[in-house]
Amino acid sequence: MIKRAIKKAFRAMLPQRHDADGRPYYTREGGANAGLQSYYVENKAAIHRGHVPDRYRRIAGLVPGQRIIEFGSADGTQSLVLALAKDAVCGVELMDLQFEEAERLKSAWLALGRRVENCAFLQASILESTHLLNGYDTVLMSRVLYHLRSDIDGLMGDIAASDVKHVVLVGCPSRTERWRKLGETGDSMGKFAYYATPEGMSAILEKHGFKITTSLAGEDGNDPVVVGAR
Question: Which of 98, 158, 160, 224 is 20 to 30 Å apart from 44, CA to CA?
Fold first, then answer.
């Protein structure tokens, strides 16, 4: 407990990370994306017992390659599900709460006999982790891209300059619906909510040289998913 308190206090002293527009992202205390995601919280007990909701299985089935890096891995569920069928998975997450939950979940699955030793979690900024890309076949970002706002284009440029062959982007059905009805005025993300939609995700992938191999609109409450390859 003492070590954790010291660690938390030290991190709170670190400079807050901002995007190119000066907006904070993934702030450490009381800021954007500070809590665990609702669909994880609703299923947390079952997930810790090894039961995986269909949402995670659906996305895992769309991820190509054997070495996967997930940017914005949150509670770690998706990375751990991928690890069951992949050679190596790395989940990158900045927020303390999500990162620590991912470590707890991995320990719980190992205790259940799940073979997830090949999944590692790294607590770091997405934008400061692009040097890792050359070790992986595929980048996965689930409900993450649009939160990076004006850093989106730069991050995608770094991915395109790496050896990564596939990018899997998962958007948000509610943001997609608001964007189509109201455009920039319909969401707190403003113009960046476009990158929560299938058309926005496809556009940024194609801009950086990826061919769209899968595009799912996200009907029936499912998240939209776009997969690019080169």
Answer: 224
Residue with tokens 């790395």: 90
DSSP 10-70: HHHTSPPPB-TTS-B-S-SSSSTT-SPPHHHHHHHHHHHTT---HHHHHHHTT--SSEEEE
**Residues comprising the chain, all counted:** 230
Residue 113, sorted as left (phi over 0), alpha (psi -120 to 50) or beta, turns out to be: left
Are 105 and 45 a contacting pair, CB within 8 Å? no
Three-class DSSP category at 82: helix
Residue type, 163: D
CA separation for the pair 75, 221 (Å, rounded): 21
Give percent of the chain with pLDDT exceeding 90: 78
- How many angstroms separate the Cα of 9 from the Cα of each of 2, 12, 75, 98? 11, 5, 22, 17
DSSP state of 223: P
pLDDT at 191 over 60: yes
Two tokens, residue 4: 């954790």
C-alpha angle 77/80/84, rounded to 5°?
Answer: 140
